[in-house]
Design brief:
The structure holds 2 protein chains of 2 kinds. By secondary structure, chain A is α+β, with helices and mostly antiparallel strands. Chain A folds into 2 domains: about 10-85, Beta-grasp domain (Ubiquitin-like (UB roll), Roll), CATH 3.10.20; about 95-170, Orthogonal Bundle (DNA polymerase, domain 1), CATH 1.10.150.120. Chain A has a 5-stranded mixed sheet with strand order 2-1-5-3-4, covered by helices on one side. In chain A, helix 2 packs across helix 5. Chain A has helices at about 30-35, 95-100, 110-125, 130-135, 150-169; strands spanning about 10-15, 20-25, 55-60, 60-65, 80. Chain B is of the alpha+beta class. Among the domains of chain B are: about 25-30 and about 475-620, Aldehyde oxidase/xanthine dehydrogenase, molybdopterin binding domain (Aldehyde Oxidoreductase, domain 4, 2-Layer Sandwich); about 400-470 and about 630-765, Aldehyde oxidase/xanthine dehydrogenase, molybdopterin binding domain (Aldehyde Oxidoreductase, domain 4). Chain B contains 20 helices and 28 strands. Helices cover about 30% and strands about 25% of the residues of chain B. In chain B, the strands form 7 sheets. Chain B has a 7-stranded mixed sheet with strand order 3-5-1-12-9-10-11. A 5-stranded mixed sheet of chain B has the order 7-15-14-13-8. A 4-stranded mixed sheet of chain B has the order 18-26-27-28, with helices on both faces. The chains are: A alpha+beta, B alpha+beta. The structure holds FE2/S2 (inorganic) cluster (2 copies). One FE2/S2 (inorganic) cluster (FES) sits at the interface of chains A and B.
Chain lengths: ~170, ~800
């Protein structure tokens, strides 16, 4: 009898602030770990080859494609997924809010990647130019919007963040 | 934005946010692949590596020896339990050749990627590995790849038993073509080759079959555009009555036609679940998704023209390479291409003929535009070529030949009845928006600097809301509106959404017709058990018929509420108004909830003026369709004729062949607009499809018919930097026979925008004499065309 059993690695990681201690088989992608093992289905599968960006998450503050990231290599990593974007009080983050307001998605299958990349962009660069937006979202395909409303959503998110910041000051 | 709207107006016409609410941005929307059940099993399909072969034997023992494998099934084994897949559109209904399609091949494969066997295992990785342990003994035969080769006398037959590699040949046309051609100043021929490309939603197809032994019933959770018709198809495959089958489509991650049914995997997972007694899920990978083709056609358009550019007649005998037979509705696209000729042009002398050819490529499925995008490409490239030959402006040539706005309703020579339009007005709007004349000046300037700017236009007529007699391509649909005792509203509708926003449009319509606030409305779709019978999403129909039927139901329910409100307030019914959930008569007002509660609970006193519950189901069937053939045997399957003009500005790097789009404008006539921001999204999305079509997306094969395009590196779809800003304007001539004058907004744009881009590149390269009429215009092809033109015309001085 052939068997697909394989060695596992004990990994400690923090996902959306919550500690997980997991035995992870060597072959398993972060995407499969999130979706199949942890039932966090907000991160999507569109290709499994690293080309579409629907699986994008943030690992230690940098966006990454979870379909081509081996979960077993992520010891002590801090991971944020789309489910972790909503603020602690249950309010939408400015990026989430702006995407909803401006129809930054239609079917929303690409939304996890678009939201993660936009969040990272605006954290580093509060007022991005068109070219900077294009660079930040270059790894993410959207098949519905034609990108026009996406650009608008990113800009609206920047403004919304700015306003929130000013209100806090 | 959001729920707020101006006081005096209703919701219709406003850019409200989608009613799906926060779920999509929180990662909480549930797609098919997000659903798992206890005991969930996973299927992996073994597919043919050959384009044409006989299956001698299949040895599944290797797969069965892998731990975790639950079952391995071959085509022969499956055939003992399940029947062939009924066609979405059976060619036999229209007098064509029809093939029997099985979920798994029996003894013969007719395309690369055809399902041959399936492994069900505890996890997807085991299933995939075990499938590789199946040994199939193939006797490989010679495939037919090219549509012209398929028609040669000695061509092998794709379908055993057929006497020609042809689904059907259909003539379209009328008038006196011979006379038109003999009286013309010139006949200008343009060969237009449209390549194979498909829709590729980011969510691939996924199906999860769940059999319940207790009730002997099965539920299919799936990426399904048309749940009710699929239920009928499944009942035939599974040999089960329809009332034992439920089809449920959760949130869908884009479809564009690809998730219309007829796919082998739909019936397969249901059958496997029944066989094994556990839920079975199959998730398509991208390589499998890329197998599904569409649109590949070869046109040879001849225009009989006068010197001033008037088109007197048009001839076009075209071939469609529809691949191997499939039960999906894709092949019908080839028919629509001819039916929609000569598009927006007032040409009455028409000789068009379709040859729908089968080959050993994988089959087609429906793709946004449904063949009408190819009509637009063929016509618009030909008109530009003719304009260049005649030395006249391509815009002038179009303006001269457009059907005039006082000619509607217009009887086309193929039997269509165009409802309304102002094509010249639409074109002018698109030109004004982009500044056509200014760009001409800029182009001159740029050429002096050695830069090659191009200006291209394209027009597309997109009949929408189609219905074919004797098929599940239906013109009508139904909706139920329910108001609960607390006044909240639920709309259940037979149309579905691929993620395009139509539930929001439908809710806006219901909010206005009923007189309630938008945020009190929920829309339920995509479930054969809860929703009224319907035909789902196709042909840009969802808002037309879903909205139209929901409006009728809402009006009925509103009448009941008003009656009881009048009784409660002891006033005259006529004096009662209801808007935004506020019911008033003079200066008296009453709470909506109080009235609704009374409707349910006081059936013997104030509520006795109505029949509870507060619920109505209504059907909407648009007019103008004619299924009874006229004296020429022609039908009009469409109630609605959306149209749009596109202008593309591009720049070509003549050293590399690279094309950069600088600017794009579109003027769109989709009738009245329910939600501008959502319609904009549809238009921009379709233009992006056109950009991909014109420049990069391409599915290719080797000479043995093995598909070379396997992932998004091979199949290059536009990314954000490839799409310029798009200037969208509306030029609406409302449909006289549809609810609110709607025409449909989802489909139009793929062909018109692709044509505008191709024309812009040719326009940019006019100094070289380049005229490319084969898509896509990849950089190597553009570069080669420039080199070839330079060689052919060494004497021409190039700036
Ligand atoms: S699924 Fe990871 S990039 Fe497509
Ligand atoms: S919204 Fe559908 S893929 Fe982006």
């Amino acid at each position: 009898m052939e068997d697909m059993l394989e060695d596992t690695v004990l990994v400690n990681l923090r996902i959306n602030g919550k500690l997980h201690e997991l035995e992870i088989p060597a072959h398993k992608s972060l995407l499969d770990l999130l979706r199949d093992d942890l039932n966090m289905t907000g991160t999507h599968m569109g290709c499994m080859t690293g080309h579409c960006g629907a699986c994008t998450v943030s690992i230690d503050g940098r966006v990454a494609k979870s379909c081509i990231t081996l979960a077993a290599t992520l010891g002590r990593a801090k991971i944020t997924t789309i489910e972790g974007l909503t603020q602690d009080d249950g309010e939408l983050s400015p990026v989430q809010q702006a995407f909803w307001d401006e129809a930054g998605f239609q079917c929303a299958f690409c939304a996890p990647g678009m939201l993660m990349c936009t969040t990272e962009l605006l954290d580093a660069n509060p007022d991005p130019s068109d070219a900077e937006i294009e660079t930040a979202l270059a790894g993410n395909l959207c098949r519905c919007t034609g990108y026009q409303s996406l650009r608008r959503a990113v800009k609206a998110a920047a403004k919304l963040k700015q306003n929130t910041r000013e209100a806090a000051e | 934005m959001g729920e707020q709207k101006s006081e005096t107006e209703g919701y219709v016409g406003q850019s409200v946010r989608t009613i799906e609410g926060r779920a999509p941005v929180m990662g909480k929307a549930t797609y098919t692949n997000d659903i798992n059940f206890p005991g969930q099993l996973h299927a992996h399909i073994l597919r043919s590596p050959h384009a044409a072969a006989n299956i001698q034997s299949i040895d599944t023992s290797g797969a069965e020896k892998v731990a975790g494998v639950v079952r391995v099934v071959t085509g022969a084994q499956a055939a003992e339990h399940i029947d062939p897949i009924p066609h979405y559109i059976d060619p036999a209904v229209f007098g064509g050749r029809s093939a029997s399609i099985r979920c798994l091949a029996l003894d013969h494969v007719w395309c690369f990627g055809q399902p041959v066997a399936v492994v069900v295992a505890e996890d997807k990785r085991t299933a995939r590995y075990a499938a590789s342990r199946i040994v199939v003994d193939y006797e490989v035969t010679t495939p037919v790849i090219d549509s012209e080769d398929a028609l040669k006398d000695d061509a092998p037959m794709v379908v055993p038993g057929w006497d020609a590699n042809m689904i059907m040949q259909v003539p379209f046309g009328g008038g006196d073509v011979a006379q038109a051609f003999s009286s013309a100043d010139r006949v200008i021929k343009t060969d237009v080759k449209v390549h194979r490309f498909s829709t590729q939603p980011i969510e691939t197809r996924t199906y999860n079959g769940v059999y319940d032994a207790g009730t002997d019933s099965v539920t299919l959770y799936g990426t399904v555009q048309n749940p009710h018709p699929l239920r009928n198809v499944l009942s035939k495959i599974l040999r089960m009555p329809e009332n034992k089958i439920r089809v449920h489509a959760p949130v869908i991650g884009g479809a564009f036609g690809m998730k219309m049914h007829g796919h082998p995997e739909e019936g397969l997972v249901c059958f496997l679940s029944k066989l094994i007694g556990q839920p079975v899920k199959w998730v398509e990978d991208r390589e499998e998704c890329l197998l599904i083709g569409a649109r590949e056609q070869v046109h040879s358009v001849e225009l009989a023209v006068t010197k001033d550019g008037t088109i007197l007649g048009l001839k076009d005998h075209y071939l469609a390479n529809t691949g191997a037979p499939s039960s999906c509705p894709g092949w019908g696209m080839a028919f629509l291409t001819g039916l929609t000729m000569p598009g927006p042009y007032a040409v009455t002398n028409l000789d068009v003929q379709l040859s729908a050819v089968v080959t050993n490529k994988p089959g087609w499925n429906a793709s946004r535009g449904y063949g009408k995008e190819v009509t637009a490409l063929a016509l618009e490239l030909s008109v530009d070529n003719a304009a260049r030959e005649l030395g006249i402006d391509p815009v002038d040539m179009r303006m001269r030949n457009f059907i005039k706005k006082d000619q509607f309703p217009y009887d086309s020579p193929t039997g269509l009845i165009y409802d309304s339009g102002d094509y010249a007005g639409v074109m002018q709007k698109a030109l004004d928006a982009i500044g056509y004349d200014e760009w001409k000046v800029k182009q001159e300037k740029a050429r002096e600097e050695g830069r090659y700017l191009g200006i291209g236009v394209g027009f597309e007529l997109t009949p929408e809301g189609g219905t074919l007699p004797g098929t599940f391509v239906a013109g009508y649909d139904s909706s139920t509106v329910r108001v609960a005792p607390d006044g909240s509203v639920r709309v259940l509708t037979g149309v579905t959404t691929p993620g395009s926003g139509n539930p929001t449009g439908i809710a806006q319509i219901v909010a206005d017709e009923l007189g309630v606030r938008l945020n009190t409305i929920e829309v339920v779709q995509g479930d054969t058990t809860t929703c009224p019978y319907g035909f789902g999403n196709s042909s840009g129909r969802s808002t037309i018929v879903g909205g139209g039927s929901a409006a009728k139901a809402a009006i009925e329910v509103r009448e009941k509420i008003i009656k009881v409100a009048a009784a409660l307030m002891e006033v005259d019914e006529e004096s009662v108004s209801m808007k935004d959930g506020i019911i008033a008569s003079g200066d008296k007002t009453i709470d909506l909830e109080e009235v609704c509660y009374a409707c349910y609970t006081r059936a013997y006193d104030v509520g006795s003026v109505i029949e509870p519950p507060l619920e109505a189901t209504a059907m909407f069937k648009p007019g103008l369709v004619r299924h009874t053939p006229n004296e020429k045997g022609q039908i009009n399957p469409y109630p609605s004729y959306s149209n749009a003009a596109y202008v593309a500005i591009s720049e070509v790097d003549v050293n590399t062949g690279e094309v950069k789009l600088l600017k794009f404008s579109v003027a769109h006539d989709c009738g009245n607009v329910i939600n501008p921001i959502l319609v904009e999204g549809q238009a921009c999305g379709a233009i992006m499809f056109g950009i991909g079509a014109a420049m990069a997306e391409n599915i290719t094969f080797d000479e043995n018919g093995r598909q070379l395009t396997k992932n998004f590196m091979d199949y290059v779809m536009p990314r954000i930097g490839d799409v310029p800003s798009i200037d969208l304007s509306h030029h609406d001539s409302p449909n006289p026979v549809n609810y609110k004058g709607l025409k449909g907004a989802g489909e139009a744009g793929v062909g018109g925008s692709a044509a505008a881009i191709v024309n812009s590149v040719n326009n940019a390269l006019t100094p070289f004499g380049v005229m490319m009429t084969e898509t896509p215009l990849t950089a190597p092809r553009v570069w080669s065309a420039i080199q070839a033109a330079k060689k052919a015309q060494p004497q021409r001085k190039v700036a």
